[in-house]
Amino acid sequence: MRIDRVRGHTFVGDWIDRRSTVIDLGANQGVFSKEMNDRYGCGIVCVEANPTLAARLQGRSYLRCSNYAIASQAGTLEFGIDEENPEASSLTRTASGSVQTVKVKGVTFADFLLEHGIGTIDLLKIDIEGAELDLLLESDEAVLSRVVQITVEFHIFLDEAHRPRVAAIFDRLQKLGFHGLSFSRNYEDTLFINTNVKPLSALNRAALLTQKYERGGRRALRRLVGAEVA
Question: How confident is the model at residue 19 (pLDDT cuts 50, 70, 90)?
């Protein structure tokens, strides 16, 4: 099993090729999508709520980008744009200081898939600054079951109040047949594999755990070296 990592998002690379359906929720400046296309030759369907960033992604041959916000209900939403740190812009931030609000179109994940005629999703990357909680807790089971892999950045590092809901997501997805594993301390890099579609052998599970603990060891070593230098 070849385990790959692109821009902080881990997934099984053996299951991705140029024919794969890859969705990038929270495309930002399109770096993840570009690297996926470079490595695997696959086209990407993406969502970016920031209208300025979404406009910059238009016209790329390997990319279809919609200026939406994925939400639990359809409608017009307020989206907070952090002008100092655009990657931190989100539905959960309100106007204050460097944060400005704009109106964006909110669509449900199910409606987004229907609009683009998407069936099976080989890889779903989610980095939507806290809105991932509602997406994974409230999307229909039938929709989630069409996803082979979900690589998601949770935002516990920004708000500890997210932790119980992340635990609820692990519980829900496990009941749907997903194997979940975090490769980082605060769930910034978490992978869910749909074992109904891709059964995991004991060797596969061992490979995933080995990757997890090797990364943890490297992080601990870097912290130790940094402390000694300081």
Answer: very high
Q: Does domain 3-199 have CATH number 3.40.50.150?
A: yes
pLDDT at 220: 60
CA dihedral 69, 184, 169, 104 (to 10 degrees): -10
Nearest to 109 by CA among 3, 23, 199: 23
Query: DSSP characters for the chain?
Result: --EEEETTEEEEGGG--TT--EEEES-TTSHHHHHHHHHH---EEEE---HHHHHHHTT-TTEEEE-EEE-SS-EEEEEEEESS-GGG-BTT--SBTTEEEEEEEEE-HHHHHHHHT---BSEEEE--TTTHHHHHHHS-HHHHTTBSEEEE---TTT-GGGHHHHHHHHHHHHHTTEEEEESSTTSSSEEEEETTTS---HHHHHHHHHHHHHHHHHHHHHHHHHHHH-
**pLDDT beyond 80 at 135:** yes
List, in order, residues 6 or more apart from 159 with CB less than 8 Å away: 130
How is the chain split into domains, by residue range? 3-199
Report the candidate in 195, 126, 188 with the shortest Cα–Cα distance to residue 159.
Answer: 188
